[in-house]
Design goal:
The chain has 425 residues and is α/β, with parallel strands linked by helices. It has helices at residues 2-14, 16-31, 35-41, 90-106, 127-141, 160-174, 198-214, 230-242, 264-274, 288-292, 331-339, 347-350, 352-366, 373-398, 402-421; strands spanning 46-55, 61-72, 78-85, 112-119, 150-154, 222-226, 245-251, 254-257, 284-286, 298-301, 320-322, 343-345. Among the domains are: 44-175, Rossmann fold (3-Layer(aba) Sandwich); 198-350, Rossmann fold (3-Layer(aba) Sandwich). A hairpin with a 2-residue loop joins β7 (245-251) and β8. Mean pLDDT is 95; it is low at 1-12. Nicotinamide-adenine-dinucleotide binds next to α8 and β7. Residues 154-157, 199, 226-232, 250-252, 288, 302-304, 324-326, 351, 354 line the site of nicotinamide-adenine-dinucleotide (NAD).
Length: 425
């Protein structure tokens, strides 16, 4: 009896979809959402599960499973990345889709939220196998995507090349080129300048604002970053250029640390050469667990979700946690960090730079034009600083943490749009 109760309690705490719904329930109580709108926002609008038979290099066929979830389209077409990972679950994709809805609303771009995922191990697949799988996945979800409907983008282990295959497959099916169906494309196919570093740059902009709000100097502030992919590696580069000292970084194989600061350019070169940051000369080895608790001013989780838990939250030393990753902090850990006076810049704010420049890419595609990189960066800076200030103002007004502040901003916008549109019929 006790065992079954314990297990369900653990599952509930450990399930990102339950966590996402719980976060909405908490904000619904704060902003006074009506039961009708709360109930509507608590579930995805549309869930598609697809089977992806794929030609493998050895002549066999493998059947992968994929998902596309559209959480909400009240404020515009839905938008969200596609994740390729062995641990992808429908619940995870649903949670990520819901977070996209709030994220687009926090930075006030006219999109709803969606997410996709395929259960696969891209690291063990050849380029040809990845292409075959991507093209069939695109075909399967083509009934729900499109520039006016739902626009995919990159996420964990999906790349500009994969976006190019999505764009080509969708275009072939329609008989003409439709670049606006997907963002995060290579520049030569209508990708936006600045999209590659947008998530990291947006994260940097909000960390800068937070440092200013806390009266902390930027020069020499110590930063630890978990994850060294699109979000983490560029965050390390941009933050070090800005004057922060990067003291620790990691990837799936482990981490490295140097109290005097890592030479980020050399770490990037080492990662390119060897496939990992591990083994970089002139640094100590640390585990991913140790990295989170490393002595630093700013901690940037930029890998997977659920890494900051009730167990390690009391040992985190940073003054600011900037969630470049989606969902890295469990709710019970959030409460501990808030109590300890650590400012958590929530994922729906801290990593919203990616979707913001994705929106810019989509606008450029629809207008058949392209902007200079400095124009992209200036517009991103305006969006991110405004989102930070609106979130900070709500957090102060309601005396809540920054996550709740961001949720209040985002959920209020979505609720207002939903109310104005009404429920059809
Ligand atoms: P990526 O595939 O480019 O990089 C992921 C990195 O995490 C890699 O360095 C990998 O080695 C590392 N990693 C994987 N498992 C790990 C583990 N168990 N411990 C430590 N490191 C591990 O992915 P990304 O695009 O950088 O995405 C990272 C996070 O940022 C995800 O949560 C994603 O949803 C979020 N995010 C990304 C974007 C974007 O534009 N790329 C936008 C918003 C949010």
């Amino acid at each position: 009896m006790t065992t079954s109760i314990d297990r369900s309690a653990v599952q509930a705490a450990d399930n990102v979809w339950t966590m996402a719904q719980q976060q909405l329930d908490d904000v619904a109580a704060v902003v006074g959402l009506s039961d009708g709108i709360h109930g509507f926002l608590r579930e995805p609008k549309r869930v598609l599960e697809v089977s992806i038979p794929t030609h493998m290099d050895d002549g066999s066929h493998r059947n992968f499973k994929g998902f596309r979830v559209q959480h909400n389209v009240s404020r515009g077409p839905s938008k969200g990345g596609v994740r390729y990972h062995p641990d992808v679950t429908l619940d995870e994709v649903k949670a990520l889709a819901m977070w996209m809805t709030w994220k687009c609303a926090v930075v006030n771009i006219p999109f709803g939220g969606a997410k996709g995922g395929v259960i696969c191990d891209p690291k063990s697949m050849s380029m040809q196998e990845l292409e075959n799988m991507t093209r069939r996945f695109t075909t399967e979800i083509s009934i729900v995507i499109g520039p006016e409907k739902d626009i995919p983008a990159p996420d964990v282990y999906t790349t500009p090349q994969i976006m190019a295959w999505i764009m080509d497959t969708f275009s072939m099916q329609h008989g003409y080129s439709i670049p606006g169906v997907v963002t995060g494309k290579p520049i030569s196919l209508g990708g936006s300048l600045g999209r590659d570093k947008a998530t990291a740059r947006g994260c940097l902009f909000v960390v800068d604002e937070a440092m200013q709000a806390l009266g902390e100097p930027i020069d020499g502030a110590r930063v630890a970053i978990q994850g060294f992919g699109n979000a983490g590696m560029y965050a390390a580069e941009l933050m070090s250029e800005r004057g922060y000292t990067i003291v620790a970084v990691s990837d799936s194989r482990g981490g490295i640390a140097n109290d005097k600061g890592l030479d980020v350019r050399r770490v990037v070169a080492h990662k390119e050469e060897t496939g990992s940051v591990v083994g970089f000369g002139g640094a100590d080895a640390v585990t991913n667990k140790e990295l989170l608790e490393y002595d630093c001013d700013v901690l940037v989780p930029a890998a997977l979700e659920k890494v900051i838990t009730r167990e390690n939250a009391s040992r985190i030393q940073a003054k600011i946690v900037a969630e470049a990753a989606n969902g890295p902090t469990l709710p019970e850990a959030d409460a501990i960090l808030h109590e300890r006076g650590i400012m958590v810049l929530p994922d729906i704010l801290a990593n919203a730079g990616g979707v913001t420049v994705s929106y810019f890419e989509w606008v450029q595609n629809l207008q058949e034009t392209s902007w200079e990189e400095n124009e992209v960066q200036d517009r991103l800076h305006r969006k991110m600083t405004r989102a930070f200030n609106e979130t900070y103002a709500q957090a102060k007004r309601l005396k809540v943490d920054m996550r709740m502040g961001a949720y209040v901003v985002g959920v209020n916008r979505v609720a207002e749009a939903t109310k104005l549109r009404g429920f059809y019929p």
